[in-house]
Model the fold of this input.
Amino acid sequence: MRAASKEEGKEPNGETAPLRGARRQARGIDNEGVTELPEIESESIPVLYQDEFLAVVDKPAGLMVHDSKLARGEDDFLADRLRVQFGRQVFLVHRLDRATSGCLLLAFDRDSASALGKALMAGEVEKDYLAICRGWPADARFTVDHPLDGGPGKPVKKDAVTEFERVAVGEMEVPSTGFPTSRYALLRCRPLTGRFRQIRRHLKHLSHHLIGDTSHGDGRHNRTFRMLGIHRMLLHAERLSFPHPTDGRRMQVSAPPAAEFAKAMALFGWTEGFTPSDAVDTDASASVTDE
Done:
């Protein structure tokens, strides 16, 4: 395998669907009416930032955020774990797909949740993702403006816009569709809208399928990475930037790539400037800036 040069670029955003309406955007999962909290035998979810009003956690890949029609019999949800871990009600401000890891924002009270939800709807929350895709996009920076439906049972298409930045490119010595090597790219992605699986579906639209995506990806390339011990979808919510709900301070929180994502990056030498999350002191992962 050989890696091509790393390119400088900007930062983009995440693939989570905004809830409809400020209150729905800040949907609460609370303890009201619950007499006994469930016993969940699992490791604590890493906390990247926490104060009296909100927290940002580092969601692991493979864990559903909450119960839904897509749960298919699942009974282990991030929202339930967080309610137990924090010992209080939590309000999810946005979502992440089950197979996606990284930054997830939540509030501890309805007023903070509502304020964050309004900020999200107003475009004041920036969500940046890292993704590894097949092929080398031609442009260093590009925007996909391609309408998407709302997922199963929601056929109406709505505007969907994602900004992409090609951070690095590399090759594997694995033949692919008549070529002697297989090409891959590390991207930063910033959705400007919040449609169902937006980043994943926009990459499919470009034929630069996301590696490890079993719904919208390319099975041949997914198998190549599985043979190398990488079994997860390679989409990671790297950074969140948002106004604090109490005083408007600009908060910026980041989550370094999880171990398996970092392993995929290391195949191409894309390690400069990135540290696996299991080697990072998460207390140093948040910063506050005044605007």
Notes: Residues 2-289 form a domain with the Pseudouridine synthase fold (CATH 3.30.2350.10).
